[in-house]
Amino acid sequence: MDTMDNDDRLTLAGQQYDARLLVGTGRYRDLDEARAAIIASGAEIVTVAIRRLPDCAEGDGLLPMLRELGCTVLPNTAACFTVEDAVYTCQLARELLDGNTLCKLEIFGDDSLHPDVRATLTAAERLVADGFQVMAYTSDDPLIARELEAIGCVAVMPLGAPIGSGLGIRNPLNIRRIAESIRVPVLVDAGVGTASDAAVAMELGCDAVLMNTAIAHARDPVRMAKAMRHAVISGRHAWWAGRMAPREYGVPSSPMTGVASANA
Length: 264
Prior knowledge:
- The protein has a five-stranded parallel beta sheet with strand order 5-4-3-10-9. The chain has a three-stranded parallel beta sheet with strand order 6-7-8.
- Strand 9, helix 7 (195-203) and strand 10 (208-211) form a beta-alpha-beta unit.
- The model has no long low-confidence stretch (mean pLDDT 92).
- With 264 residues, the chain is an alpha/beta fold.
- 38% of the residues lie in helices and 16% in strands.
């Protein structure tokens, strides 16, 4: 099955989407490669770093290309280290994108790109009060996730591992707890390295996955984008199906009673 079920669409900020894979636009060699990868991914929401837009490899054609593809543009505050910079960047994006209020909030604590959760909470409060629909990138702390939901964020986006690391889901227990404890959509953001990581995120109960580097830095970005698309779909179906209970011992798949014996 190449798509989600019709009755299992992602609802985000009041809009419904068929795809549960969101992708970024950075790190590609050129606009043509970015376009091909986005199409292969099936993504309907594509995030753009507003502060890096003038210098990105995709150039001035990026936003027109995304509009041509019919993608929802999700501006993000990448490269922001303060509340003031993040809020200003979202306001700038709102002007640039004709009043769009959906935004991805990310504030880094230092050059490790780990989220500054205190600054994120403060900025989220200010942005929500200003009418923004905030998707917040944060740590994998369930308590912080609940605070972001209480502030009014439309989605919570815990990291799976440090941005660009490709290490996969390093703390599945916390990701599962976040997915089980809040009602707004939960998206794993950062750390995905390959398709199995995306499937694991979905099997933990996440609503979607956002990624960039895992696709853009693959040997074949377009093929990896297609793999990620199918992994997210597979993981979602597996979550709905419900995995069997793990056991510490083997259990035969066929009954042992009534088996023909050579001594009978």
